[in-house]
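Section 5.1 Outputs to date
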Amino acid sequence: MLLEESEISEHCFDLIFAFDEIVALGYRENVNLAQIRTFTEMDSHEEKVFRAVRETQEREAKAEMKRKAKELQRARQDAERAGKKSPGFGGFGSSGMSNVISATIITDTIEPEKPKVASAPVRSSGSSKALKLGVKGKEVDNFVDKLKSEGENIITSSAGRKASEASKVLQPQVNIESVHLRVEEKISLTCGRDGGLQNMEVLGMITLKVADEKNGCISILINNNDKKGAQLQTHPHVDKKLFNTESLICLKNQEKSFPLNNDLGVLKWRLQSTDESLIPLTINCWPSESGSGCDVNIEYELQDEGLELNEVVITIPLPSGVGAPVVGDMDGQYNHDSRKNILEWSLPVIDEKNKSGSLEFSMDGKPNDFFPIHVSFVSKRNFCDIQVAKVTYVEEGSPVKFSSETSFVVDKYEIL
């Protein structure tokens, strides 16, 4: 396994700190991977106390400055009402100058604190011959084998970047016409670890964008096959009566046209329920304590077989400082992030042909250490079966060429 310079530079400081724990006074110390991770992740309690005290002092100083500024402003207003000059600002142009100074003080004190941005490390422009990994391939392979024997999941940085890019929400390329419609849904769901749906909310919207003026006076036929009980609401400028009777989205004043080059939400819906049968993807986690730690079995099952979920990632928290999990039988792939102490279970597609699967692993810990579990996915099919059937001109009734895209994403999906 060869490492490139860019891959090393991404973790240069982590490597330096890790080597500092391995080598002492020129001699190699007998430490394992778990000890190195514990040493490099240690933080300072005194530093936290110092930061907390400093933040408290800064807040008190700002409050005192605001109070002083208000007193100065109140004194100036009292002096103006009494027809006298403001106290403390006598001399040439005292009145105008006092206004400027007091305004400046108030502005400076009320201005919110800017977030602190960590400066990026500056790389030296000199030669990069000081550190080269990969020259002695046998020693590198032995070190990698040592990490694998301790249960660490080894991936290269390029592979990690590809995995992170694949997990992002990537919309397919759509040939956008002058009339373009987006059907978007997002779900927020919370379930208990022992079963039971605590809350589920699905929010959906159809957004219209017209790029050509000749296509402004149009009507949109909606195909509503929802059987889950979603509540629909049209835009205030849309003829609600016509939509309720004929499922047509059209402006109340049909002589007017939809706004050009502007994303306009013409229809939205909301579904809120605690019915467990409506859960699109169920997750069952069974952690059980054993003599050597805890055995965890996680299962998923697609309840709505009409959905096709892509880029599914099930994230399980892990206890810190106990090493890597030992993964047994599994479907899909997994990635152990030792810095965040999580296990990511990735499944490219879940549909009616691949509606269930499981993952088993074991490690030290208690059953509560593996909750809450978070789920993320994307889908080209929406949850509430509401789609755009066709678009026509209002006067002529002839069809209008249009394009559309559908997305169903996760806002929050967790098992507590």
